[in-house]
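Researcher: Going back to the complex we discussed earlier. I've cleaned up the inputs and rechecked each line, so this should be the final set. Can you rerun the prediction on the complete assembly and write out the structure?
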Amino acid sequence: MFPIQRRDFIIGGSALLALGPNRNAWAQAAPAMTPHEKELYEAAKKEGGELTWYTAQSDDITAQALGRSFEKVYPGIKVNVLRTTAQVAYQRVTQEIKASAIQCDVLSTTDIGHCVALKANGSLEKYVPENSSKVLDIYKNYDPDGTYFVTSAGMIGIGYNTSKVKEADAPKNWTDLLDPKWKDNIALGHPGFSGYVGTWTLTLRNQYGWDFFEKLAKNNPRVGRSINDTVTMLNAGESEIAGSGPVGTLMESVQKGNPLAMIYPTDGTVLIIAPSGIMKGCKHPNAARLYMEFLMSAGASQIWVDHFNETIRPEVSAPKGVKSAKDLKTIRPTVDQIVKGIPEVIKQWRDTFGV
Amino acid sequence: MSRLKLTGVSKRYGDFLAVDGIDLELQSGEFVSLLGPSGCGKTTTLRMIAGFVDPTLGAIEMDGQILSSPSGSVPPDRRQMSMIFQSYAIWPNMTVEQNVAFGLELRKIARAEVKRRVGEMLEVVHMNHLADRYPAELSGGQQQRVALARAIVIRPSVLLLDEPLSNLDATLREEMRFEIRRLHDEFHVTTVYVTHDQAEAMVTSDRIAVMNHGRIEQVDVPRALYDRPKTRFVAGFIGRTNFIEGSSDGHQIAFDGFALPQSSFERDVAAGSKAVFSVRPHSMRLSETPPAERNGAVGVVVVERAFLGEHWDYVVRPRDGAQTLRVTTSPMQDFPIGATAWLEFEPRQMALIA
Amino acid sequence: MTDNSLDVRAVNFAGVASRLRRLDASMLLWLALIAVLVFLILNPVLRLIVSSLQETDTGHFTLANYRSAYGSLRHLESLAHSLELGVGVAILATCFGVPIAWAISRTDMPCKAFVRLMVFAAFVTPPYLGAIGWILLAGPNSGWLNKVWMALTGASHGIFNIYSMTGLILVVAVTSFPYTFVFTSSALDLVSSEMEDAANILGARTLRTTLRITLPLVTPAIIGGIIISFLEAIALFGAPALIALPARFNVVSTQLWQFFEYPVRVEEAAAYAMPLLAITVLMFWVQRRILGRRGYTSVTGKGSERRMIALGPWRWAMLAYALMVCALSVFLPMLVLIQAAFAKAWGRGFSLDNLTLHNFYYLLFEQTQAKQTIINTFLYAAITAFAAISLTLAIAYVVNRKLVPFSNVLAFLCMAPFVVPGIVLAIGFYAAYASPPLALYGTATILILGFTTRFLPIAYTSSAAGLRSINPEMEEAVRVLGGSRLLAIRKVLIPLLKKSLAGAWILVFIPATRELSSAIFLVGPNTRVISVMLYDLSEEGNFEVLAALGVILLVVTVVIAAIGSKVIGRDFMLRRNS
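Model: Rerun complete. Updated structure for the full complex:
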């Protein structure tokens, strides 16, 4: 897929080492650049050698790692990585569309509803990456018209601080969060900011009805913005439980040495399908196409996995001891439910939680 | 017992001796000026009397009680004195009435009584029609009156004034000089007045202390300071004067270009010694014709002249001398430049300085 | 023999042609300046007002925006919260700033230079950074202060909860009090000690004199400080976003942000923003009424010597108070921020194995945006400062020398942005200039224009003050000798104003580096500034990197300000370096 030179191997290897122990080394020699990729690469360089990527699909560090990796594989193309929460990214993109000043080239969001809406008003460009046929089956064919593709997936469970909560006492299922013993000690994100939290809220509404959240509000949770805020709260010791706990961020934090642990609820772990698309009328269309290829490549999946996110390629597997979506019972809403439901739950959330 | 007494008061700032051994006594109701050029220490002395500055040496007493000494002093708010500042220090955010009432209110006087006394005081200074005005709406002279009213209404034991008229124009200054004196007379306030303007001091004061380089050179009634200055500085500072030096041979004193007999002077100058006299410009007479008594006169040439309306200012030079002398004459006596004339001396008005 | 006869043309001043020439030049100047000011100020504000009455996408007149903006109880509550925040901050900032200003300006309190430095540090610290510091300090379960309390008393809960209105008021007040401090102490510096002596000798002691004479004399400054801190507080975005949201209440600024979520509802946002504008105008009207006819400056020029009041043992009490305020605003937040900046995981505390330089390394070398963001921030702030100072100097000159008729209109327009909260101004700019035809969305231009407008009032006040201190006779001397007005300006005025202008530059530069409320609406992906990046980083809770970025911001700002003040020989309050 791309030529691994000795230099790249050393740099790549040390980059992986720098990120911590327990990495799958790039043991397999990856295939060289395909002719299609080469073509895109040349065109991208001629365009100006730059790409602007709005992403909500990970934290900043992972996003930066992906951007750096692309730059190493395709030298001469600079990637501007802008990581925000999904709603903020979407807001910026819609502002740009309204002002007819598109700055974003590739949008990676965690709310598939965004892509549906953008496609509907003709703001996404059609491009079917070569790699789109090589991803895991569950991530294929979300848009038959080829304007957006799943490039990332993640899971949400319940996290807890092991120095404050014993394993035996920890919640085992979503409904355990309603137990009054967790009052003042639960951290949540906000669906109005985070696509992950939006989907999570919708999933749990589907599962238990909105009543679940009315009761949850009585436990006085600490509401942040991003889903990653919950991990911060746990680390800070501010909350003992992350009610909407992102698996990727939390496991990465554990690996840094923080006293956290993940619970995969018995009723199901929420699975987030996160798509990306190319903005129509963007400044660097060829670089954008190349980036879409990259995001769906094994190399990108390796980086996802290194940061405890899900892999979307079958060749890449999760590190030892880390559960992956295929090992778990997962629950998630349908695309239609997401499109209609997320704005609804945002409004309901504001009414129930006051912000 | 004197009202206010300064004994050996000195103030040193690092190496600089601002005030050097001041002795001064004021009787009750007396109006004394501290007169001198800038930097002579008069304001520092005043501030020591007020209690804003502590003396390095010496003591300040009032009615026998020690107010200031190097070891400690009564703070200004407890001295029962009042002060008028150079900038008047009228509080611009209060009306005239509120300004004047301030001191009375501090003394916990009943409101009705305060209003009455303020009203009275404002009448005295002719300001009661402006009682509700703010200082920004008043002229310089009016602000001055407010300052006076505020200071006097509390019946201070001593009233201190720090060059209060220096911000006013000439006409206003003259008017306010009399005003200040009038108020003093009406209320019999013991007053210490600091100024560099000798005319002000002369008009207002019972006595004047002339200060120079931190010391008092002479304390006297105005007339005596004028006619009988004891030092060169005092002579030159109060009014204009000519300094002429002469040497005595026992019979006459020889000056530059002329001589006067020893006998015409009140005091003898020892033979062989020198003497400096202060001769006021108006104490000499300029005439066209030689005077009868030749001994006290000298022929002169007119070098410069200026007509000032009320008098002529002449600069003349004795025919046989180099030093010029200033003479004033009435407006009628018109001598052109270069003309010759006779200058007649009045030895009794010649003050022996040194 | 030089020719001293008059130029005939100069003498023919009665001719129509020469009259026209004179009229033209001044008219042109006036028109040019007005055009700039209209572009910067009037147009955005008018567009805002017009937008609030327009229907989205169709532009028809409607009151629906106001209905939906104010029909909701939640929205009204947010407004009430903003007012509560503003009043609380104004009171607290005054309590902090005024006594310290008095102590420094008029008494013999020790360690003045240190306290002034700390006030400056508080001035340089953006409110949102202070908020982060206080979250680390007083998060109800995790904050350092609470941990200390729990350790000392064995309690299971901390006693400080930063996620509350009280917490928010404290956080904002400790970064706002430099305003009240600067206003009050500048005014106090001008009060002649004779004012106090006069009260003294009439029988009033220190406290009574201070309360009845000294402080009332600087009432305009104190009121000015109160108003500024109130207005700043209600327009703030960053600190409320960080603290109010987890505390589950909204203020107007965070509510406005929601109107900018998808779908963007500029019209509703405009309608919702109107009260902020109205409140600001009201504040200034109130100020004029209170101050009324009374004068406040000392009426004569002489005797403005200032002596320090000797406080005796009380000076230690004053110092203790000042240090307490400094602790709240600088020491404590800075301490925890620096700890977090150098920590692998800030929650693990002050241990040696928790130390790392990685956060800085990450920012400067790995994070693609950080370097550019840092450069952007200081570059835009510098350009803003230059633009604002140049424009306001020109206007102040025209106004002060009365070169054109109705010059007061220019002055009024320069001060008008004061009345518009930053966030509202940004929305107005967005409404007016982001879309075609100008299409300035995401450019550095719109950001700089927005900032320049926002800081026009400060720049104008400084320029006008500087100009007022120059006697016009200086330039007249040049003109009598035959030089043109421009020559006089170039050779006489500008050199004389150098120091004052440099001081004004710093006064615009520093707030521009930390501005968030207006930046958040106007930045594009390539024009991000540090404040927005800090906000974005706070969204994912990466406090370590955030703290490191904050430290970089503070260090560079302080260094630039220090260099600047050395160069001009005065500190940030434009006092001579003693």
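Model: Worth noting: Residues 335-353 of chain A form the longest helix (19 residues).
Researcher: Good, that matches what I expected from the previous run.
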